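Student: Hello, beginner here. Can you help me understand the protein record under this note? Any guidance would be welcome.
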Amino acid sequence: HLMQRLASLEQEVSTLRAENGGAAAIRAAEQDSKHLIDGVAVSEPNVNPKPSNAFSIVQGSQSPVTNHSKSLYDYATQVNLFQPCANLATSNASAPLNLVSDTFEGNRCQSLKDKGLLTAATLADQANEAQAIINSFGILTEQNIVQPSHYFLSVPQGLSVTYANAYGKLSVADNLCGYSFGATDASGNPVAAAASTVAQIFANGSGIPPTGGINLINNTSVGGAKIDGLSTSPSTNRQDLNIDGVLCLRALAAGLDPVSGRPLTGQALKNHQRVKEGISDVRASGNLRKKPVVIVNGRADAVIAPNHASRAYFGLNKTVEGSHSRLQYYEITNAQHLDTLNGTDGFNSRFIPLHFYFVQAMNLMYNHLKNGDPLPPSQVVCTMPRPVVGGVVQPISTTNVPAISQTPANDARIAFVNGVVQIPE
């Protein structure tokens, strides 16, 4: 019977291991008053901890982070607003897949400046200022090098729209903030989706555009509906990557007009309240009911920000459960959210596979539940990127991916001391 439960647990964790599935597994453990769950191992969970001022987060000797525990929707819309301009920052010049049109990115910088959201005079300074604003929102500098690729792949754009609809329980037919989904032609104009696209979308689509031949469309574009990235914003008459739609989505997170700072009214206020309620519904309590839980997260995760998700949940759990906590957190350096990118130029020489450590975490939890083996203490696992020899990235080896240690060095241990989540460099 025990082996059947363990096998079931391993299968469940394998299936629900990341992002929303990982968060669902954690929240299931929180709600499990009947002890149906023995333990949980998850990777990069989109867990949204209840905000708490009872703790701060400190990485190495850096300044304490107190503005942690923001919802994914909150920080995704902030990144969505400033990232196109930040792509032009000096520090992002070598970022892999930083391929969005410099013209459109420059237009976003100018539109942010015109609306009073940036103060710098030159384009270069505006880009650096935009990057600084993103990092002041609790985004790690280690995430910066990955963010341009995610904007190129429409990650924050798609997340901002779909999560607003999901949290607000709104239909795509509501055209929230002027967005809709659909197929487009080579010029970015909406067209009827091909029958073959529709037939395969369940298999090929993730549900977050662009996906399976379905793209994000700006219904309010000057001259008529257009694919979002090529659209022209009515308020600026520029191809600035739809700043009007992005500001509308940002307002739904903050409850304020991002430009004027005034509270929302009318339908915008109602939409904000619906989104806010939806976010509240998925907030995690931090009470794991004394269950053993393992969380693995890459430090460079540019989808699920560590300061707002895994790190913050670790702090909340230690605050709530105290000495009864059985949560272990493993933070992996040189690891990011989308392992599938690690085969591309620029990623292959920088990042190691996070999934390797998720498999370790599952095995550690299995052996803990089956044999009583102790779970390794919370720690930072310092990996080594693959070397480049003669311009060729070398094959990965065990040297690049050291195991999660049962006895990590003191300067590698993650700890919770006097209301501070201490993350070693």
Notes: The CA atoms of residues 128 and 211 lie 31 Å apart. The first helix runs from residue 2 to 15. The mean pLDDT is 94.
